[in-house]
Each structure stands twice: as structure tokens, then as C-alpha cells.
Amino acid sequence: MSAEPTDLQLMYDLEPVAEKYVNRHLEMAKDWNPHDYIPWSDGKNFYALGGQDFHPEQAKLSDVAQVAMVQNLMTEDNLPSYHREIAMNMGMDGAWGTWVNRWTAEENRHGIALRDYLVVTRNVDPVELEKLRIEQVTRGFSPGQNQQGELFAESLFDSIMYVTFQELATRISHRNTGRACQETVADKLLARISHDENLHMIFYRDLSAAGMDMAPNRAMHSLHTILRNFKMPGYTVPGFRRKAVMIAVGGVYDPRIHLDDVVMPVLKKWRIFEREDFTGEAAAQRDDLAVLVEELNEAADKFEEQKQRRIAREQKTGRRTSAQEVLATAGTLTLSRR
């Protein structure tokens, strides 16, 4: 059996595929303008221009929606780190460079639109929001870390496979956040953003599939590494754990959603458990992915039990955690207590 291609060779071999999918993306993508999704007539000047600064009572979104909106925005705000990651792994030449720049331009709209919405509708304190953005971008992000924060070697496969799952997860998170807002404008905005994320996911998913056909064992090594160590890009946001719990309990993104709507659809699309071209260590890693799926299923069931106990406890005591408390764990955002 011939040796599988190096990363550099793989990049050359995949470039025609990348070009094909870039062109497909440009045909499918629909341009939109962030300003069209902002209720500007609701806006007021802040103190610096003779108006009134933010007060927590002005926020109208629910606790879950507030936390999810801020978490989604902070995830989008780390775009400089994401751009650097894919540029380093894909390069800036030819179709690769075209995609890197186009993807970055489209992703940049998301942060612009989310911030404008939150500030204009006064659902967050814009001063604290800016402090959090500075801290988040300063922390940066790299998908090449395991759960202990240790770096593992990154490759082209690591990058495109990670982003396949991440884009799908982000799409679902945005869409469910829009529903949680129970506000028409926010729902339309987040639906628009989630549509972008879906097209991005399709690009990475299909590119990964083509690469897997070229180098199945190397692809499996990356897939196994990514799924065994998967973390959402927002994990670097201050107070991430408590935010993630509130978002999960609120049904925006939880372990069951992660398994059923993110992990399994991609694995099925790639026919991971049907393919017969994995050998040696890669075959063992494919078998371990089946174990991982069972572990994720057990974790999802366990979380649901914990969630129901938490809801019952809150109903009994009348005490539930507010967005203000969750976001205050980072010493940053102060939102309304509802």
C-alpha cells in the first residue's frame, strides 16, 4: 500500500476540490446587510451624547436568551483567531486563499449584526460588552488543544474536520437562540446567521469527505482526535462553564443536541461505520469512535436527568439562577435579573 500524502501534497491534491466548492458556495450564498436586521427606531443616545446609559431594567430578553446571545456574540468576536488558524493550515494561495477571505468576510457580518442588535435594543450593557470582547479576543482560540488545554499537532485535516462540526454546532446554537429570544427581529437575524453557518459547514464537510477518500487513515486520525477532544470555540469566554449550563438547561445547546444533531449527522454523511478503507491504528480509532458515541449518549441521558432535577428544585424553591448571576461569574456583564 502506497504512503498517504503529506499535508502539503494533500493541499495541492485538494485544491481543485476546494475551487469547485468555493464556486458552489458563491452560487448558493445570498448577500445580506446587517443593518436590515436592526430595529434602529428603538435606539437611543447614550450619556456621552446627552442620552441615558444602560440600566438592567431595560433588557427584555429572557435569562437564557441573554446568556446565549452574549455567548454567541463572544464566539463570533474571536474571528481574528479563527482567520489565523485556517490561513495557517490552508494557506492563502489560489482557491484556498479565496475561501479563507470570503469565509472571514461573511463571518464578520455575524458579530456586527449581533452587537448592533444587543446595543440598540439595550439588552446588554455596551460598556461591559466591550470589556468582555477585549478579554475574549486577547485570549484567542486554537482548536488544537485537548480537554486539559495541552496542544496537539494540527494539520489540514484537523482544521477542516474541526470546523465541520463547529460550524454545524454554531448554526444550531444560533437558530435555537433565535427561538429562545421570542422576539421577531432577533429570530429573523439569527435565522439569517444560521443559514450562513450551514453553507460554511457544507463546504468543510464535503471538502473533508474528499480528503478522506484520498487519505483515509490520516483523516481518521484527525477525526478521532477532534471528536475525543472537541470543545466549542466559545470555551475561552470568561465563566464559560456556568454559561454553558444555563444554555443547555434552556434547550439552546445541550449534550443530546450535540450528539443527535451535530456528531451523528456528520458521521453518517461520511459513512464512518460503513467504510472498509481504514487500516491498522485508524481502524482501531474508528472502533473507538463507536465507543465515544455510546459515551456521549450516556452523558446526554445523564444530563437530562440532572436537568429535570434542577427544574423541579427551582419550581419547588422558586429560586432560579439569573443571567446577571451567570455573567457576573466573570466579573464582566451585568444584565437584567428577571
What is this structure, in a nutshell?
With 338 residues, the protein is mainly alpha-helical.
Rg: 21 Å
What value does the average pLDDT take? 89
Distance between the termini: 63 Å
Main sheet, how many strands, which sense, barrel?
none
Helix/strand structural class? mainly alpha
Principal-axes geometry comes out as globular
β-strand number: 0
Proportion in helices: 55-70%
Question: How many alpha or pi helices?
Answer: 12
Ranges where pLDDT stays below 50 over 5 or more residues in a row are 146-153, 331-338
- What is the element string, with H for helices and E for strands? HHHHHHHHHHHH
Beta content: under 5%
Subunit structure: Homodimer.
Keywords: Coiled coil, Fatty acid biosynthesis, Fatty acid metabolism, Iron, Lipid biosynthesis, Lipid metabolism, Metal-binding, Oxidoreductase
Pfam family, one: FA_desaturase_2
InterPro entries: Fatty_acid_desaturase-2, Ferritin-like_SF, RNR-like
